[in-house]
């Protein structure tokens, strides 16, 4: 039981940054914008959070700095793709490369320096429940925030007028513009929310997951987050299942290596990414699943009539 509980705790810890980053990208894509720069925004959030928390001694300020780092990167992406109407795919890739290089430069002096770990916030009474108590109710504040964000985002997208506007812009930006809605403004706000969540995911990595700054510490999690959005069919509720499934794969490969399973360690380390590829292949083969809830204007540029 103790081993199972420990594995469950590590799965939750590994899944939270995936859930946060993919949730932000889901809202961004619901507005019709494809931002492939999630990895770059995450790594900038990680280095900003680590640097500020270490210099100020406050992990709360570090979290805010991580969110700000992600938002700044998202505004840059929005300016290039929404204002200057550059190609969204190429700009997203460039944003990732910029984030990886810039974070390496900013964090050069912090490599190997122990950071400040965000303390857990156990919920009295519930944390003592058998098996799931510590895993679900003895976590850090960012875990609880991630669950609340999923619930709030699901309500916002499908129960509020503002969420309906975002989905309308993603489905048909021309009609939304004709009805008087500012497509560019809506998309800017959605892109910034995506940057905020990616920055928060990066802050989680450097303040909770490892409490260290390591160059390229996101290790491809941004790309997995992009795949999770497709895996979930752009539905926040399914996103939780996907994030925890991929988190479990990434953690179980560590336990398999520790148990001495007769499989090359390189192959075990590649399991999360192989699982991502398999999931995407499965989805692409089923056209009904691939088209379900896909925003019709995803990746399409919009230039308002002048």
Detailed description of the structure:
The chain is an all-alpha fold. The protein has a single domain (2-119, 127-291), classed as Orthogonal Bundle (ABC transporter involved in vitamin B12 uptake, BtuC), CATH 1.10.3470. It contains 14 helices and no strands. The protein has helices spanning 2-30, 38-56, 59-83, 88-106, 133-137, 141-159, 161-171, 173-178, 183-209, 221-231, 236-258, 265-269, 271-285, 287-291. Helix 2 runs parallel beside helix 4 (88-106) and helix 10 runs parallel beside helix 13 (271-285). It is globular. The termini are far apart. The mean pLDDT is 89.
Helix content: over 70%
Strand content bin: under 5%
SS field, number of helical segments: 14
The arrangement of helices and strands along the chain is: HHHHHHHHHHHHHH
- Report Rg: 19 Å
Span from first to last CA? 66 Å
What is the CATH class?
Mainly Alpha
User: Helices and strands: which structural class?
Assistant: mainly alpha
Overall shape: it is: globular
Q: Output mean pLDDT.
A: 89
Task: Spell out the blueprint of helices and strands.
Elements: H1 2-30, H2 38-56, H3 59-83, H4 88-106, H5 133-137, H6 141-159, H7 161-171, H8 173-178, H9 183-209, H10 221-231, H11 236-258, H12 265-269, H13 271-285, H14 287-291
Provide a compact summary of the structure:
By secondary structure, the protein is mainly α.
